[in-house]
Amino acid sequence: MRVRPTAGPPWWSPLRPRAESGSAPRARLLVVPHSGGGPNRYLRLFGGLADDVEIWGLTLPGRERRRTEPPGATLDEVLASLDTIPRPEVPTLILGHSLGATVGLHLAQAVGEHCVGLIASGQEPRDGAAGRLSEHSSDEDVLRLLELGGDMPSMFLADTEWRTALLDTLRADLRLGSESAERSRGVRLDVPITVLCGREDLLIDAAALAGWGAYSTAGCEVHLVPGGHFALFDDINGPRYVEAVERHFSGVPHPLGQSTRG
């Protein structure tokens, strides 16, 4: 499967500059955003990570630096896009929020032996089960989901052109989410999964979060934090997310301390 050719920006881009020393990174964090969103918002969340951890963000068509492209991507296109990231041998952690967690499960599997874990944020496990919405849901139902998520000012929805573009993007993401859920049957990671979710998240059944453990042979931890669906962007929770990332990277030595492969 080849990545869809584009004349615009790439699927993955660094969310912060490389360290001035130019030394090889110790590890890499791949950030997979929520439905309708792009990765730039996540830079603030993980800006406090050590300089030797690369942070890359996935930008799907139709948002941020790819906003001029028609929205929509298949799971195979997302997985193939990993080939565009340099140095695939770097120990890699996947963090996905909401839709990003469902897609992130497959990315973690695709990274293979270099994957050190998955952080699933603000999402129930989906194993082929129908979500509360699909790409065929009514406009009202899709916008109601945004309302429950609590992250969409009503002033934006009053703009007809902006509202239409948003709905097109969300329907494309719902299609990607459904495909990812359907193909998650039987997926098993040999690395640990950490689940983080807001206690007041109206989109999530907290009792279902432990189900992420079925996707890992290395254990699963569930942690509830204050806030709603976008609790990860609340200042009070930033340290919890950084801590979770660092815990997955614990024991990963700097490349200069490792023997190189022939």
Short account of what is shown:
The chain is α/β, with parallel strands linked by helices and 262 residues long. The protein is built from seven helices and seven strands.
Give the SSE string: EEHEHEHEHHHEEH
Mean pLDDT: 85
Please report which band the strand proportion falls in: under 5%, 5-15%, 15-25%, 25-35%, 35-45% or over 45%.
Answer: 15-25%
Distance between the termini: 28 Å
Report the CATH architecture: 3-Layer(aba) Sandwich
Question: How is the secondary structure organized here?
Answer:
Elements: E1 12-14, E2 27-32, H1 43-46, E3 53-58, H2 75-80, E4 92-97, H3 99-111, E5 115-121, H4 139-149, H5 154-157, H6 160-182, E6 193-198, E7 220-225, H7 238-249
Parallel strand pairs: 2-3, 2-4, 4-5, 5-6, 6-7
Antiparallel strand pairs: 1-3
Helix pairs in contact: 3-6
Folded structure, characterized:
The structure is a single chain. The chain is of the alpha/beta class. The chain is built from 7 helices and 7 strands; from the N terminus they run ββαβαβαβαααββα. The protein has helices at 43-46, 75-80, 99-111, 139-149, 154-157, 160-182, 238-249, and strands at 12-14, 27-32, 53-58, 92-97, 115-121, 193-198, 220-225. The chain has a 7-stranded mixed beta sheet with strand order 1-3-2-4-5-6-7, sandwiched between helices. Helix 1 (43-46) links the parallel strand 2 and strand 3 (53-58). The longest helix is centred in the middle third of the chain and has 23 residues, at 160-182. The model is unreliable at 256-262 (pLDDT under 50).
